Amino acid sequence: MTAPAPRIIVADDPTAVAEETAARIAESARSRVGASGRFTLALAGGTTPKKAYELLAERPEVPWGAIDFYFGDERAVSQDDPESNYRMARESLFDRQSIEEGRIFRMRGEMPDLDAAARDYEAVLPDALDFVLLGMGEDGHTASLFPGLPAVLETERRVLAVTGAPKPPPRRLTLAPKALRTAREVVVIVTGGAKAAVLAKVLAGPLDVGALPVQIALGGTFIVDQAAAAALPARLTQSGAKSEEKRS
User: Fold this and answer.
1) CA angle 68, 111, 152 (to 5 degrees)
2) What CATH code is carried by the domain that includes residue 159?
3) Is 199 contained in some domain?
4) Contact 107/74 with Cβ under 8 angstroms?
5) pLDDT digit string (tens) for 168-178?
6) Domain that residue 188 falls in
7) Does residue 207 lie in a domain region?
8) For residue 60, is pLDDT > 90?
């Protein structure tokens, strides 16, 4: 199977990646709200996304009242746990813009029955999200879709309970591949030299979603810093038709 060609944006450092990400979300939100009156955004966890959310919260042009917020994954913890993706988003974005609770659709990681929580979330998830923000781990995972786990190859469900994740905690909720593939726009952000070798396999190697789940998002945009891009072939970062430098 031939992998789709991703669009690659190389920024200087993690801060520049966060700036580019915030700008892209703001631009997409304004465009989509102008066309349909609503923008559905699925958020990622992690350090770089947190910085992007802080920067996004400073943008007055964002149509905050027309955005519905969802999540790409969540750990099986309470909403106030330091490991909660919801808590991170609340502190870095929601509280800063006084987002209405009715526009925040969090995954209920605290529920004892995670499969029931997954089905509940599936029921409120739109048929196609407008924008999904993802990260990538050093093992090539994205959201809570880890290499070798059955969730990576699921084709029917849109939200899944995950058990046995190799990173703690082992129990999680995640958007399934189908939800990622049907999204109107997907952006993957990757920073740091520790991920350079894996990113090169993801973008320049053979298609193997079971081993590199983030390849599910190859049809989207990858915003990476110089360190993460260090092992990419020149054809992808310099002369590729779908590559570009960070916008000035």
Assistant:
1) 70
2) 3.40.50.1360
3) yes
4) yes
5) 999 999 999 99
6) 7-245
7) yes
8) yes
| pLDDT at residue 46 in the model | 87
Note if the pTM is more than 0.90. yes
- Average pLDDT (93-120) is 98
Q: Are 74 and 84 in contact (CB under 8 A)?
A: yes
114-130 in b/e burial notation, b at 16+ Cβ within 10 A?
beebbebbeeebbeebb
Q: Is residue 2 part of a domain?
A: no
| Edge-to-edge strand list for the sheet holding 73-75 | 73-75, 172-175, 159-162
Q: How many Cα atoms within 13 Å fall on the side-chain side of residue 130?
A: 22
Rounded to 10 deg, the angle between the 14-36 and 47-56 helix axes is: 50
Beta-strand relationship, 7-11 and 67-71: unpaired
- How many structural domains does the chain have? 1
φ/ψ of residue 188, rounded to 5:
-110, 125
State which amino acid sits at residue 80: D
At 167-225, the pLDDT tens digits run 999 999 999 999 999 999 999 999 999 999 999 999 999 999 999 999 999 999 999 99
* Number of CB atoms found within 10 A of residue 229's CB: 24
Question: Rounded to an integer, what distance in angstroms lies between the CA atom of residue 93 and that of residue 44?
Answer: 12
